[in-house]
Amino acid sequence: QVQLVESGGGSVQPGGSLRLSCAASRSIFDMGWYRQAPGKQRELVAQIITGGSTYYTDSVKGRFTISRDNAKNTVTLQMDSLKPDDTAVYYCHARQMFTDYWGQGTQVTVSS
After folding, report:
1. Dist CA 77 CA 97 (whole Å)
2. Cα(43)–Cα(41) distance, rounded to whole angstroms?
């Protein structure tokens, strides 16, 4: 079993920045962030594996940066140039041995 504990999130004006962090209870190969806006399906935002390879959904490329600290089992999502469309609940995700683990979710609201 893996526990994921998220921190960060909150409210910011358009163009602002926020940072999300997620700590896993043990080493995980595949970690990332999903988000779910009201009335929409949960979508993958960014993903990073142990070796450092990353994936970003098109709408956040150039604005979001995902990174990880393998020694601390943490993953961080730096979100810059935030837009109202980024408003959602963000979930930390981890996958190990074909099993998915989820954090509790943290609200990100971008509004003027």
Report:
1. 23
2. 6
